[in-house]
């Protein structure tokens, strides 16, 4: 699909005309696609960006100039950038008017911007504006925020959305440093994935510096009615005034998390670590933007029971941000490592039982994905060939949970001390570099297996990495607390009333285990008993996610208005999609889901929309 579409840009690039240039125009090289990017990194890559940006809430656009320092790797005469719905106003090379052209638009990739250079060219400057519909930017009206007073904007660059708000070489294969100067006119605080302010600027202008090289998907910006609270010497939280104190309470262990992570795998290399709690429309649990994790407010459970998501995002400071998957086919190298690191951090902070409960829930989600996609689906391998598909739409749990189990198998096989030493050497040896699956396999065979091919085969390593499904030697967690939950499930299934169950002190993961494993479908009387006793529809979004799937399986219509409210109130795909998928299992449920989605969809982020569109076959409705 992509290969065919890319060929269509060639005539435009070869015949491009630069207005006002009397000299003979150089022929621009035709870009090809490599892992969703038009950039030819073997010829020339960007190594630093200076960004000047104005945030215009009235027009819902960013306007500015991105200036790139070039790293020549061959005798290149053209440099290619990725853009998506950007209005390119002008381009200069070393301060002089340049010859440039935009190729045809390809739905997933956007338009290649090709600029004529010489092997001695040092800088390319691109003046541009974004589109109000930029897929990596979400503009929120005051009514869509917690405070209801000021507008809000935030970006989401992963996987290939940075190109919708900055012209760039939008591939994880390249890393660059950046400085930025951003202006906003309405007195809001601006933050980026860089060194950040804690107070508002009097003139609305903010400067940022990121001296450590990062890939484009970790470019991030947010602006809104935001305040800061410190949680330690190197940590803190940002959020809207009405939320920031709750966020500071929920994430008060940030400094302890940092210390636990460093004790495992070496020093934190990004200076400060802060968390920005965004408005409800944010599509993920968290996004690991360096120095500033973006987080969903659905984590604010009030009892610190959902901190594993923050452990996960902090762990990305090593696996992902420090050592980065070179292509999106290698995504498991980010997420599998990070999930393993997250659970080890959680164990160090909150005990083995805490970590094992998280593992059980992760396996639940993995098995659900296998059931939906088929365990023999090629996308249930760790290494995948995305072949032009949208990386936001491929299976979500396999790289996380199968990747975790792969690393846990290595830990259990070689011993924790040996495996920890291996991981620490891995992070040190490849810091601020990119990693492919092939390169990792070579490193693993050399550094951990010490060339022992028989042991490699015995542990079924090739099957783990390249074959679908879960190999037979997968580790199995053990949880005494979940065993106790299961005993209460049996009591309820045997006729005990909900009020008779021993539930005192249960945390969110324990409630999830209880609800997930109730016999389905439940009778109307059982649903009513559980709802009256535990008020699940009034709990946090994690419990509601589990509960509403049971309600739908039982077709208990009195709670469908509550389901509708839930689907309108948050934007996190992980919590929303299973409910929509469950509804879509029956014709009546699908009709209800599509009716609700029609009203809720405009408030969702583009990433969330793309996943739910597929689940509900929305193209059938839209067309």
Task: Give an account of the 3D structure.
The protein is an alpha+beta fold and 623 residues long. It has 4 domains: 2-221, Immunoglobulin-like, CATH 2.60.40; 226-317, Zincin-like; 321-478, Neutral Protease Domain 2 (Neutral Protease, domain 2), CATH 1.10.390; 481-622, Peptidase M1, leukotriene A4 hydrolase/aminopeptidase C-terminal domain (Serine Threonine Protein Phosphatase 5, Tetratricopeptide repeat), CATH 1.25.40.320. It is built from 21 helices and 21 strands. Strands 5-4-8-2-1-11-13 form a 7-stranded mixed beta sheet, with no helix packed on it. Strands 15-16-17-19-18 form a 5-stranded mixed beta sheet. A hairpin with a 2-residue loop joins strand 4 and strand 5 (96-97). Helix 16 (541-553) runs parallel beside helix 18 (573-583). The longest helix has 22 residues, at 352-373.
Number of domains: 4
Q: In total, how many beta strands?
A: 21
- Strand share of the residues? 15-25%
Shape: globular
CATH fold title of the largest domain? Immunoglobulin-like
| Intertermini distance | 21 Å
What is the multimeric organization of the chains shown? single chain
The residue ranges in which pLDDT falls below 50 over 5 or more consecutive positions are: 1-23
């Amino acid at each position: 699909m992509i290969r065919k579409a890319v060929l269509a840009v060639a005539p435009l690039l070869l015949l491009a005309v630069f207005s006002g240039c009397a000299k003979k125009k150089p022929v621009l090289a035709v870009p090809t696609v490599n892992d969703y990017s038009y950039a030819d990194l073997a010829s020339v890559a960007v190594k630093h960006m200076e960004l000047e940006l104005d945030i215009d809430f009235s027009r819902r656009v960013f306007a500015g100039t991105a200036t790139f320092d070039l790293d020549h790797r061959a005798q290149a005469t053209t440099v290619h950038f990725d853009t998506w719905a950007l209005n390119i106003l002008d381009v200069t090379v070393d301060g002089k008017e340049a010859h440039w052209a935009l190729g045809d638009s390809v739905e997933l990739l956007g338009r290649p911007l090709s600029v004529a250079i010489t092997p001695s060219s040092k800088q390319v400057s691109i003046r541009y504006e974004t589109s109000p519909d930029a897929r990596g930017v979400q503009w929120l009206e005051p009514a869509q925020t917690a405070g209801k007073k000021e507008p809000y904007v935030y970006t989401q660059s992963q996987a290939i959305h940075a190109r919708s708000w900055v012209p760039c070489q939008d591939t994880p294969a390249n890393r660059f440093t950046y400085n930025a100067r951003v202006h906003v006119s309405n007195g809001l605080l601006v933050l980026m994935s860089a060194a950040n302010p804690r107070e508002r600027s009097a003139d609305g202008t903010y400067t940022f510096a990121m001296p450590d090289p990062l890939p484009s998907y970790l470019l991030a910006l947010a602006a809104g009615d935001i305040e800061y609270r410190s949680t330690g010497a190197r940590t803190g939280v940002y959020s809207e005034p009405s939320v920031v104190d709750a966020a500071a309470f929920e994430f008060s262990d940030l400094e302890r998390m940092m210390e636990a992570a460093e004790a495992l795998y070496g020093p934190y290399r990004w200076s400060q670590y802060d968390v920005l709690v965004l408005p409800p429309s944010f599509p993920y649990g968290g996004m690991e933007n360096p120095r500033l994790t973006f987080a969903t407010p659905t984590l604010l459970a009030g009892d610190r029971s959902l901190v594993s998501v923050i452990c996960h995002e902090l762990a990305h400071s090593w696996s992902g941000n420090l050592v980065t998957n070179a292509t999106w086919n290698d995504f498991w190298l980010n997420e599998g490592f990070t999930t393993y690191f997250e659970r080890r951090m959680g164990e160090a902070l909150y005990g083995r039982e805490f970590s094992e409960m998280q593992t059980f829930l992760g396996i639940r989600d993995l098995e659900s994905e296998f059931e939906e996609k088929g365990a023999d689906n090629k996308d249930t391998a760790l290494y995948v060939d995305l072949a032009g598909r949208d990386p936001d739409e491929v299976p979500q749990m396999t790289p996380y949970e199968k990747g975790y189990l792969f690393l846990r198998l290595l830990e259990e096989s070689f011993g924790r001390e040996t495996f920890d030493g291996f991981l620490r050497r891995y992070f040190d040896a490849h810091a601020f570099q990119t990693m492919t699956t092939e390169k990792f396999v070579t490193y693993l065979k050399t550094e951990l297996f010490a060339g022992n091919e028989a042991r490699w085969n015995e542990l079924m390593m090739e099957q783990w990495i390249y074959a679908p499904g879960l190999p037979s030697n997968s580790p199995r967690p053990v949880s005494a607390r979940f065993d106790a939950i299961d005993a209460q499930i049996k009591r309820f299934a045997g006729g005990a009333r909900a009020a008779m169950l021993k539930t005192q002190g249960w945390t969110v993961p324990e409630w999830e285990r209880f609800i997930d494993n109730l016999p389905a479908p439940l009778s109307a009387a059982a649903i009513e008993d559980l709802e009256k006793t535990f008020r699940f529809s009034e709990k946090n979004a994690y419990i509601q996610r589990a509960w509403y799937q049971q309600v739908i399986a039982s077709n208990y219509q009195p709670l469908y208005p509550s389901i509708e409210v839930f689907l309108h109130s948050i934007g996190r795909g992980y919590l929303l999609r299973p409910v929509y998928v469950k509804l879509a299992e029956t014709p009546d449920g699908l009709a209800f889901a599509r009716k609700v989605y029609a009203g809720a969809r405009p408030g969702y982020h583009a990433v969330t929309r793309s996943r739910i569109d597929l689940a509900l076959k929305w193209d059938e409705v839209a067309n």
